[in-house]
Write a structure and sequence with these properties.
14% strand; elongated; alpha+beta; 196 residues
Length: 196
């Protein structure tokens, strides 16, 4: 393509389309191939009162139609680990290559080069959000479980019982914070834990 050889470019694209079609038909999981990942941590240190204040102010801004101001406030309520994964979108390649072939056939070599470059430079980014308060709560529940493991509750020493109850109390507090921040709700079912 970059040498201006129309016949050779079309033959190469034909070969690539055939291989991609077969590859994706036999291995649909390869439609998005992960090539890199980055982890970002946003850690908010605030109590329930501060979180409630931010929520109320954001709700007030939204009611007034100040969506960007509300968005800025709501962004402060991020307490999470974000795993951003970068993928090659192989599923888009056959369609793009067919379009590139059409452009080459119409002697639109410059347009074909631009589309080829765009296709090969396109990445799909997926983000998985893991709420830190939910992680903290799970850690506290596990801690309480480990303290009481292999011991009949009647036989648990008072200090161990108190330690386990304290861990469960902290777990409940973390879940309440997660709920206030919008993480621990049925609508966000990936992270919904009941704390009643």
């Amino acid at each position: 393509l970059y040498n201006g050889d129309k016949k050779e470019a079309l033959a190469a694209l034909e070969k690539v389309i055939g291989k991609l079609d077969i590859l994706l038909a036999l291995n649909p999981e390869l439609s998005l191939i992960p090539i890199d990942a980055r982890i970002e941590t946003l850690n908010l240190i605030a109590d329930e009162a501060a979180i409630k204040d931010i929520r109320e102010e954001a709700e007030s801004m939204m009611k007034k139609g100040y969506l960007q101001a509300a968005k800025g406030l709501l962004n402060q309520l991020s307490n999470e680990v974000r795993v951003n994964t970068y993928h090659l979108p192989l599923q888009t390649y056959p369609l793009a290559i067919r379009e590139i072939a059409r452009l080459i056939d119409q002697d639109k070599m410059d347009e074909a080069k631009v589309l080829l470059t765009q296709t090969l430079n396109t990445l799909v980014i997926t983000t998985r959000v893991i709420p830190i308060p939910v992680l903290n709560s799970q850690f506290m529940i596990t801690k309480a479980s480990d303290i009481t493991k292999d011991t009949d509750p009647k036989d648990l020493p008072a200090d161990k019982k108190e330690e386990a109850l304290d861990a469960l109390k902290k777990a409940k507090e973390q879940l309440k914070i997660a709920e206030l921040m919008g993480y621990n709700t049925p609508a966000n079912s990936d992270h919904w834990l009941r704390y009643k």
